[in-house]
Specification:
The chain is of the alpha+beta class. The protein contains two helices and four strands. A hairpin with a 5-residue loop joins strand 2 and strand 3. The structure holds iron/sulfur cluster (SF4).
Length: 73
């Protein structure tokens, strides 16, 4: 993929949305905060961006290779 995805640990409210919808890319850590897992590399950019938009707390941040943030609104 050309984009990078991360979960802002302090912003995730543990809704489970990303983990439930896209378990290839997201999992819960021991604190039930979502983290990005290696399978995210196999997920199309558009799908990752769509999933970031579905996060109820806006915790999923998507950046391009140049470091700029993808607008999720
Ligand atoms: S969808 Fe957002 S709030 Fe819910 S678990 Fe994933 S990162 Fe956390």
């Amino acid at each position: 993929v050309a984009v990078r995805v991360l979960v802002e640990h302090d912003v995730c409210i543990s809704s489970g949305k990303c983990v439930g919808d896209l378990p290839r890319a997201f999992a819960f850590d021991e604190d039930e905060i979502a983290v990005v897992v290696s399978g995210a590399a196999e997920v199309p950019d558009d799908r990752l961006i769509e999933q970031a938009r579905r996060c109820p707390s806006g915790a999923i941040v998507v950046t391009r290779e140049d470091g700029s943030e993808v607008d999720l609104l």
